[in-house]
Prior knowledge:
The protein is of the alpha/beta class. The protein has 2 domains: 14-125, Response regulator (Rossmann fold, 3-Layer(aba) Sandwich); 142-180, Orthogonal Bundle (Arc Repressor Mutant, subunit A), CATH 1.10.10. It has helices spanning 22-34, 45-54, 72-81, 96-104, 117-125, 142-156, 161-168, 172-180, and strands at 14-18, 38-42, 59-63, 65-66, 69-70, 86-91, 109-112. The protein has a 5-stranded parallel β-sheet, with helices on both faces. It has a two-stranded antiparallel ribbon with strand order 4-5.
Amino acid sequence: MSDDTQLDLGDDPSLLLVDDDEVFLKRLARAMERRGFVVDTAGSVAAGKALAVSRPPAYAVIDLRLEDGNGLDVVEALRAKRPDARIVVLTGYGAIATAVAAVKIGATDYLSKPADAGEVVNALLQREGDVLPEPPENPMSADRVRWEHIQRVYEQCDRNVSETARRLSMHRRTLQRILAKRSPR
Length: 185
């Protein structure tokens, strides 16, 4: 799909982009405008929630971790005002647990950063019943699967390290060291 391909966005092409990476936000906003979206941008949870409530868009792309909080708060605010909105959550962390949490509270899909405008558009416009993309050629390693499981339990425990360590039968400090590291490939 080229950068200037006009899409069938229905009657309402409004799009909210929420990300605290200003360069990425501006670049994605320009690319989405070229595709026919009417774009509002926000660089924080507070600004994103304000726009979601005052002008609920048909589409939204929301970063998961923002400087002033969690992008899932914006997803919840938008879902409350506009249940039919198509919402994609972006995460630089790529944890299955956070993706599951995003989908449970109303996100349509999630993408790992870096994601280009074409991937974002495909995720926004994918409808139920569409053919799913091919599975990855190189699946997760065993270390990555372990790390994803730990992240899922951590999210289920509301990010409480002590409770997570207890449920996983592991020492709290060991868990803290694992959580402080980047995810394995």
